[in-house]
Amino acid sequence: MSVVASPRDTAAPISVVASARDTDAPTSADPALPFDAVVQRAAQVASVDAALLHAIIDTESGYDPQAVSVRGAIGLMQVMPRTGERFGVRRLEDPAENVRAGASYIRWLLARFDGDLTLALAAYNAGEGAVLRYGRQIPPFPETQNYVRKVMAGYARLRDASPVPAVPSRSLPPMQPAAVLVDTKPETKAPATTTPARERGDMSSDEAARERAWRLLRGVGALLTRSPSAEASDSRGRDRPAVVMPARGQARGAGAAIGG
Q: Which parts of the chain register pLDDT below 70?
């Protein structure tokens, strides 16, 4: 049975899984959830709900920081090494680093799938490619569907009892991998564009004179090189020199005649 009738409707899966109480899911009645301080810090950095991270951790590893899957996923949030590297984390055996990587990845998936939590969870379990191959639907894998149902059940319990707002349903802005964990780069402003002196009006008198001279020369050049159409030239005789200079051979003959 599919987890949700319409994966695009984020309200539907919450109501469905909230009625299917999972006794293994963490509840708000717990005196203190394991690694809560680590989870709270990672949730703040990645801008996701800490209750969601707790639900994922409980489902992925049962809060075992040394858990390693047969596929090579590591730690509390069962992060693959390549996924950790995407978000600038290599020490996945460290609980704090592991949760930061997992939180950043789930945040990225929420942005990738337009805030649809069920699709983000399905992609966290089965991979982004699987969700895309099935037309942005939850893949028909029993493991993935059970995973989504279990995480949503735990999250619904924690969220309902928490005064902190849940993950927003609106579309989230995209985040760049390896930049969502710690932003240590100073904000850089684009250099101000320089305006030529002629446009600012702060040229010296000599510069202004040279500028006017160049403009005049350009205007003269345009006048000398501009030619009207052939019809206008024939009818009005434009651009014809006032004195027609003879060819070089004719000039020599004329000089000889004058000299003779």
A: 1-31, 162-210, 213-260
Residue 199 lies in a domain: no
pLDDT of residue 51: 97
The model's pTM is 0.56
> Is the residue at 241 inside a domain?
no
Which pLDDT value is given to residue 124?
98
Q: What is the CATH number of the domain that holds 136?
A: 1.10.530.10
- Say whether 85 is catalytic: no
Q: Which of 60, 93, 97, 143 is catalytic?
A: 60
Q: What is the DSSP letter of 79?
A: B
The number of distinct structural domains making up the chain is: 1
What is the structure's pLDDT at 213? 64
Q: Provide the pLDDT for residue 38.
A: 97
The per-residue DSSP string of 168-228 comes to -SSPPPP--TTSSS---SPP-PPPPPP--HHHHT---HHHHHHHHHHHHHHHHHHHHH---
pLDDT tens per residue across span 80-95: 999 999 999 999 999 9
CB 103 within 8 A of CB 45: yes
Q: Which distant-in-sequence residues (6+ apart) come within 8 Å of 63 by Cβ?
A: 34, 35, 57, 76
Q: What is the dihedral of CA 129, 135, 138, 139, to 10 degrees?
A: -60
Tell me if 131 is assigned to some domain: yes
Query: In this structure, what token pair is assigned to residue 260?
Result: 């003779």
Q: Which domain holds residue 150?
A: 11-161
Q: Is residue 4 part of a domain?
A: no
The per-residue pLDDT for 5 is 33
- pLDDT for 166 equals 46
Whole-number CA gyration radius for the chain: 38
User: Between the CA of residue 253 and those of 243, 244, 245, 247, 256, what are the distances in Å?
Assistant: 18, 16, 13, 10, 5
